[in-house]
Amino acid sequence: QLQLVESGGGLVQPGGSLRLSCAASEFPLDHYVIGWFRQAPGKEREGVSCINRSDGRPYYSDAVKGRFSISRDNAENTVYLQMNSLKPDDTAVYYCAAGAARTVQAMCASGIVGSWGQGTQVTVSS
Questions:
Q1: Residues 27, 49, 64, CA angle at the centre, nearest 5°?
Q2: Helix (H) or strand (E) holding 35
């Protein structure tokens, strides 16, 4: 099973930025659709952003469109989630996931993936 390791979470003030990283050591991440999901206390897990394996095409949920950006660095075997203009509603545990969905929209909408990371906490608060 693919092992994914997230990093970059933390406490940030509203309007601030964070960059999350998702890395793997055993397998090339560009063989998979990679997604970022989040789960806030008392809420269901939701797909935030997913990136295609072939052409790097991204998908963003309406909640983060225009503020978050997903990207790949194949040389580093890492996928990043740049989060700008953070809001308190963005507070959640963020999970990286890898899958083989046909489209990035399908993966982010369904949450059907092959592997999950352990999660990293993002807290947006003044």
A1: 155
A2: strand 33-39
1 pLDDT tier (thresholds 50, 70, 90): confident
Check if the beta carbon of residue 98 is closer than 8 Å to that of residue 37: no
Question: What is the Cα 55 distance to its own chain's centre?
Answer: 17
Q: What is the pLDDT of residues 30-40, one digit of tens each?
A: 899 999 999 99
Residues 6+ apart with CB under 8 A from 79: 21, 22, 29, 34, 51, 70, 71, 72, 73, 96
Number of Cα atoms under 13 Å in the Cβ half of residue 28? 7
Q: What is the DSSP string of 52-114?
A: -SSS--EEE-TTTTTTEEEEEETTTTEEEEEE-S--GGG-EEEEEEEE--SSHHHHHHH---S
Amino acid occupying residue 122: V
Task: Quote the DSSP letter at residue 51.
Answer: E
By DSSP bridging, strand 10-12 and strand 120-124 are: parallel
Of the candidates 18, 32, 24, which has an alpha carbon nearest to the alpha carbon of residue 5? 24
